[in-house]
Amino acid sequence: MGRGYPWPRVVVLGGVVLALGFLWALWDGRAQPVHPTDWVLENAWPRRERPYVLLFTDPLCPFCGRLEAALASDAEVKALVRYLPVAKHQGSYEAWLIRLRDWGFDEGEARKWLEEGLAEAERSGVRVTPTAVVMGKTEKVILGFSSYRTWREEVLDAIGP
Predict the structure, then answer these.
(1) pLDDT of 60-72, one tens digit each?
(2) Which residues are 53's β-sheet partners?
(3) What is the per-residue pLDDT across 25-62, written as a single tens digit (0 to 9) for each?
(4) For the range 2-7, what are the long-range contacts, defined as Cβ-Cβ under 8 Å and sequence gap of 24 or more?
């Protein structure tokens, strides 16, 4: 009788490698400053006057999805959000095109905004999704997402009274 495949060891080792990779990506993203370019400040969608939240998001990112689902039921904070594209997952570009068409962009406008937005997000230093840049009484960068309550408190604190 053979020893068989060492599943427990492989699963644990795979989990450790995945966790370390995630932590490295998060740490690497935090080490990089995020500074929105002029294009980002002018063209984030929809246009809003300050105060606002620049939200760099990928429609296929599970953390972005959780954040956007929570935002959908929070009219106060949702009214502050201006979206910017990031495409870290396979199929994200196409998902962004669908989203932009739903927002009223025609195909040509959507592709142009998306191409420029993806390049400008990279120039702005965005490495982690979601990334929020609060443009309020203070400018604050919020990397990643774990708890909506905490995220919301950080946003409103930076927005100020």
Answers:
(1) 999 999 999 999 9
(2) 81, 134
(3) 555 444 568 999 999 999 999 999 999 999 999 999 99
(4) none
Closest Cα partner for 129 from 7, 26, 24?
Answer: 26
Convert the chain into a string of H (helix), E (strand) and C (coil): CCCCCCHHHHHHHHHHHHHHHHHHHHHHHHHCCCCCCHHHHHHCECCCCCCEEEEEECCCCHHHHHHHHHHHCCHHHHCCEEEEECCCCCCHHHHHHHHHHHCCCCHHHHHHHHHHHHHHHHHCCCCCCCEEEEECCCEEEEECCCCHHHHHHHHHHHHCC
Bridge partners (DSSP) of residue 133 are 54, 141
For the entire predicted model, the pTM comes to 0.80
